[in-house]
């Protein structure tokens, strides 16, 4: 990491390829944020660390500061990162600079700045890891009690990002609901606070832990963007706060709602990682930088280095009605069209004939699979595919052996109902015995069967979050302990079964975040597999997250919106923009449709490295007109692929035109549909006509540099 430090003025400057991040310690020992924006060459370019806004007796006497990790204490009124109660009931924290160090790491170096309380034995280690080639900074805090007596943490965020003083800011964020995930919202930021959050126990779909800030004028290609995402799959919050002095801060981390952490002497609390970036290149560049960072530094290695296989998933074909014969028939069809990984979804275990029973009993149902899974797996493998399986380990149906044996393993309160949702309850993953059960049942499943893929589902939010047989002081820790337990179990399974890839699913896209992405190779974006609705979901997802990890199924035509049948090509083009999966009932597809599917899967295999690994350009947004166009370009700019999909055509309107991006201006490219090779400049500045006229017309256009 390029790190400049000026000892005399106590200022640090972290240098990325195009960004700088500046910090400093003022005369009172307070760690201040000094700068985050376009690259500055020298430490002396940073503002004076002792400048502050002085206003009135209603504001802090030392002036209004952009504190790097503000604690609640003294006259501090904005969102704090830290709020603590000491053993003598003092509820006021004063953090000053203690020291800094550099940790050299394999992937990148890390700056650690240590703050200490002026009186109490409390340290805060602020970790900064900069990935210069992507202009992304990872931050987290470790809060350490170096005394004897316990300290109660009531708020312990990962960090606060600051934008420069500015007159106008806009927030872009992702929100939605089940079957309508990751929709894009943009709001003008006015003085006050806006919080996006989850208090449901999981990441949630109502909001996604990603944000972007701009000055109200940025678009896909230009404009300053500050953005970030939390790596956390439990309760979280991101608070955007704009004060009357035109300072904007974005704070985020574990939600403080119903949270406290009993920090015993000698112990530490580590916050989730908050990754953030800055670019002048608009939303498009912000996404590309973030995607590349995720592929290289977030998704689990070594699996992330490869391309994702084309998978088949049985859910929409058979729902709970799975058995050896039916799955074999599907596997044969899937293999014949080029599928590489066959995944059996819900219904294979216990008495799971519907969603009212069986969850928690992770043994193969003997009526459905009289000889276990082996004959099906052997068949799948003989067809040249790998085998994958669905599980939902954090949950239990009351009608299950697991619950009958361990009714105390779920979160619950006495004198209150155990609220069921989808007929299920949430296991208390904080409990060591629950963790042991989850690990052992999955370890057994993976050890006894040739399984290469696990779809890890989670189909309800929490309620009655009680764990009353645990000590009183850790009651409100369940929100954090659940996510920590989940991470730990998947990490241990990965370590023991390194060939197994994981998909994070939560009734669709309710568990998409950078925390789970460190442990899973892909995420399920939505249970809505309508190819048109998906364009919106995928566009929102792509603002924050990479295409390699985005699983997209081709479903049956008119599966969801009954009066909207779509051609095979349209469904494939919509799904080929991420990791391709097939989710339809192939036994019902005509020979002609299967033949066409075979064609598109073969095409996908030729271009998937560009989609999954390349730079993504959102050329036409579904929100802006009747055509969506998304282009992917390889890093060496020699190969590109464009997907364009049209929906209702207005009579007499011309076919849409697009201006490509990311190509070499002087290079010549062969383009599907265009007879003569054309230059990158022509494709980008003259543009190309998509020649899409009909409703649901769609295209894949390949662009390849002419080899010398
Ligand atoms: C959730 C998932 C679906 C499917 C079902 C199975 O809804 O999102 O893809 O796995 O559970 O019950």
Please summarize what this structure is.
With 708 residues, the chain is an alpha+beta fold.
Number of helices: 12
- Ends distance: 38 Å
Structure class: alpha+beta
User: What's the alpha carbon Rg, rounded to whole Å?
Assistant: 26 Å
CATH class label of the largest domain: Mainly Beta
Looking at the overall shape, the CATH architecture of the largest domain is Distorted Sandwich
Unique ligands = alpha-D-galactopyranose
* The named CATH superfamily of the largest domain: alpha-galactosidase from lactobacil brevis
Total number of beta strands: 38
Name the overall outline: globular
Q: Quick check: average pLDDT?
A: 97
Helix content: 10-25%
Domain count, please report it: 3
β content, as a range? 25-35%
Any key phrases for this structure?
708 residues, alpha+beta, Beta-galactosidase, Chain A, domain 5, TIM Barrel, Immunoglobulin-like, 10-stranded antiparallel sheet, 8-stranded parallel β-barrel, 12 helices, 38 strands, globular, binds alpha-D-galactopyranose
Report on this structure.
The chain has 12 helices and 38 strands. Helix 10 packs parallel to helix 11. Strand 8 (about 120-130) and strand 9 (about 135-145) form a beta hairpin. About 50% of the residues are buried. It folds into 3 domains: about 1-295, Beta-galactosidase, Chain A, domain 5; about 305-520 and about 550-615, Aldolase class I (TIM Barrel); about 625-705, Sandwich (Immunoglobulin-like), CATH 2.60.40. Helices cover about 20% and strands about 30% of the residues. Bound molecules: alpha-D-galactopyranose. Alpha-D-galactopyranose binds next to loops.
């Amino acid at each position: 990491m390029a790190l400049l430090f000026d000892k005399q003025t106590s200022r640090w400057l972290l240098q990325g390829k195009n960004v700088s991040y500046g910090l400093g310690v003022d005369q009172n020992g307070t760690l201040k944020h000094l700068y985050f924006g376009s690259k500055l060459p020298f430490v002396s370019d940073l503002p004076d660390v002792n400048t502050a806004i002085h206003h009135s007796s209603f504001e802090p006497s030392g002036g209004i500061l952009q504190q790097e990790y503000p604690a609640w204490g003294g006259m501090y009124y904005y969102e704090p990162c830290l709020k603590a109660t000491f053993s003598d009931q003092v509820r006021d924290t004063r953090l000053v600079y203690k020291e800094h160090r550099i940790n050299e790491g394999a992937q990148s170096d890390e700056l650690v700045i240590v703050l200490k309380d002026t009186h109490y034995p409390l340290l805060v280690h602020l970790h900064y890891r900069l990935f210069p080639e992507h202009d992304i900074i990872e931050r987290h805090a470790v809060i350490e009690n170096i005394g004897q007596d316990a300290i109660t943490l009531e708020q312990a965020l990962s960090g606060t990002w600051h934008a420069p003083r500015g007159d106008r800011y806009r927030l872009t964020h992702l929100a939605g609901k089940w079957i309508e995930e990751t929709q894009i919202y943009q709001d003008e930021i006015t003085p006050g606070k806006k919080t996006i959050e989850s208090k449901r126990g999981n990441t949630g779909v109502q909001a996604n832990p990603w944000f972007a800030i701009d000055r109200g004028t940025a678009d896909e290609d230009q404009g300053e963007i500050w953005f970030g995402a939390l790596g956390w799959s439990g309760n979280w919050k991101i608070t955007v706060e704009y004060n009357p002095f035109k300072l904007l801060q974005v704070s985020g981390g574990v939600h403080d709602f119903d949270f406290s952490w009993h920090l015993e002497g000698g112990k530490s609390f580590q916050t989730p990682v908050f990754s953030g970036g800055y670019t002048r290149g608009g939303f498009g560049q912000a996404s590309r930088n973030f995607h590349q960072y995720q592929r290289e530094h977030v998704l689990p290695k070594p699996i992330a280095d490869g391309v994702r296989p084309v998978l088949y998933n049985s859910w929409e074909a058979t729902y709970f009605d799975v058995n050896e014969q039916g799955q074999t028939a599907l596997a044969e069809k899937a293999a014949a069209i080029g599928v590489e990984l066959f995944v059996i979804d819900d219904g294979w275990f216990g008495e799971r004939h519907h969603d009212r029973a069986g969850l928690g009993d992770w043994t193969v149902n003997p009526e459905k699979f009289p000889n276990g899974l082996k004959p099906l797996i052997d068949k799948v493998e003989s067809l040249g595919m790998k085998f994958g399986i669905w599980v939902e380990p954090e949950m239990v149906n009351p009608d299950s052996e697991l619950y009958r044996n361990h009714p105390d393993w779920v979160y619950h309160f006495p004198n209150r109902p155990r609220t069921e949702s989808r007929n299920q309850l949430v296991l208390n993953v904080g409990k060591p015995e629950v963790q042991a059960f989850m690990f052992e049942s999955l370890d057994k499943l993976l050890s006894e069967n040739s399984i290469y893929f696990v779809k890890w589902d989670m189909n309800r939010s929490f309620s009655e979050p009680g764990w009353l047989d645990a000590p009183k002081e850790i009651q409100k820790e369940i929100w954090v302990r659940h996510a920590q337990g989940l991470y730990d179990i998947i990490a241990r399974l990965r370590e023991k079964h390194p060939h197994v890839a994981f998909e994070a699913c939560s009734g669709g896209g309710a568990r998409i975040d950078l925390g789970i992405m460190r442990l899973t190779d892909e995420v399920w974006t939505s249970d809505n597999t309508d190819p048109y609705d998906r364009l919106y979901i995928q566009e929102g997802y792509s603002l924050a997250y990479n295409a390699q990890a985005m699983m997209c199924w081709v479903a049956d035509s008119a599966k969801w919106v009954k009066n909207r049948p779509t051609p095979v090509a349209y469904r494939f083009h919509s799904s080929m923009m991420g990791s391709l999966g097939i989710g339809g009932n192939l036994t019902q597809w005509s020979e002609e449709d299967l033949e066409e599917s075979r064609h598109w899967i073969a095409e996908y295999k030729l271009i998937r490295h560009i989609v999954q690994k390349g730079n993504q350009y959102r050329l036409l947004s579904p929100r802006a007109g009747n055509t969506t166009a998304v282009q992917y370009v390889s890093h060496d700019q020699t190969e590109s692929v464009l997907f364009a999909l049209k929906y209702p055509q207005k009579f007499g309107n011309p076919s849409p035109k697009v201006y490509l991006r990311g190509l070499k201006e002087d290079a010549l490219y062969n383009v599907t549909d265009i007879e003569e090779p054309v230059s990158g400049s022509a494709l980008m500045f003259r543009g190309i006509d998509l020649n899409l006229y009909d409703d649901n017309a769609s295209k894949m256009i390949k662009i390849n540099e002419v080899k010398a």
